[in-house]
Amino acid sequence: MTTLSFHDVSLRYPARKGASEGQTPLVLDQINLSIETGEFVVVIGRSGSGKTSLLNLAAGFLPPSGGRIAVDGTTVSGPGADRAVVFQDDALYPWLDARDNIAFPLKLRGVPEAVRHTRAQELLDVVGLTDAGRRRISELSGGMRQRVGIARALASDPLFLLLDEPLGALDAMTRTRMQGFLLDVWSKSRAGALLITHSIDEALLLASRVVVLSANPGRLAADIQTGFAAELLGGASVAQVKASPLYKRMHDGLTGLIHSISEDTEAAA
Ligand SMILES: Nc1ncnc2c1ncn2[C@@H]1O[C@H](COP(=O)(O)OP(=O)(O)OP(=O)(O)O)[C@@H](O)[C@H]1O
Fold this sequence. Notes:
Layout: E1 3-12, E2 26-36, E3 40-44, H1 51-59, E4 66-71, E5 74-75, E6 83-86, H2 98-108, H3 113-126, H4 142-155, E7 160-164, H5 172-189, E8 192-196, H6 200-206, E9 209-213, E10 220-225, H7 228-233, H8 238-243, H9 245-268
Parallel strand pairs: 3-8, 3-9, 6-7, 7-8
Antiparallel strand pairs: 1-2, 1-4, 4-5, 9-10
Helix pairs in contact: 2-3, 2-4, 3-4, 4-5
Bound molecules: adenosine-5'-triphosphate (ATP).
């Protein structure tokens, strides 16, 4: 088991050139959070609470202003193949076909062409795009593109998948289908997942833990174990899970919590 951990992490973005003197606002404050391989942690919080910033810190795209982020005790000092990122806008290379997009991280690592094509085809199979490898990105639907993005992230066998609203741009039906797909792919990968979403349903259906961020500055307001994803992986349907009294209670509880945090923040502003 490997752990991705935040130790007393804080973040301020640097002041823009020409901005007046003084510190920029604190975006994240005293974040202590650990994610283990095999766990699916979903971060939820109102807009501007620092969710994407948190994910960018984990990815090594940003250095923390205070504290430290580590993978099994080794400080994260930049991006690494152990942590793969999937964004909302799939960020694929339009001049490459689906197979070569998926194989791209392997090409960067110098993996021979034949080996990377074999691995890319395996991943196309995993994400249900067996026959789409030679199709250009512009010929794929939104859901198919996100699956290519997820397959590309899996290509380097990461320890952690960092998912920034990967399903946010999809229509409701495709999104529901993709949630099931993501859960399935993740459970087979045994990676740790850190996913950001605005959707309480998505959080409850995918997470083994839901983390709630307050805003201004972003602090951990709650860290809640959930078991609905395990029920789905065990064969329950989304409708069955959502109909349970516990699901409704947790949904109401999270809605109330996020609402009350927003009111507190507005009152303090
Ligand atoms: N590159 C940046 N430079 C300066 N400030 C930034 C930068 N990126 C984000 N911020 C600020 O940091 C705060 C947190 O932003 P962030 O995007 O992390 O929040 P979020 O919870 O992901 O928001 P949303 O749900 O709307 O995507 C916001 O006040 C935002 O304006």
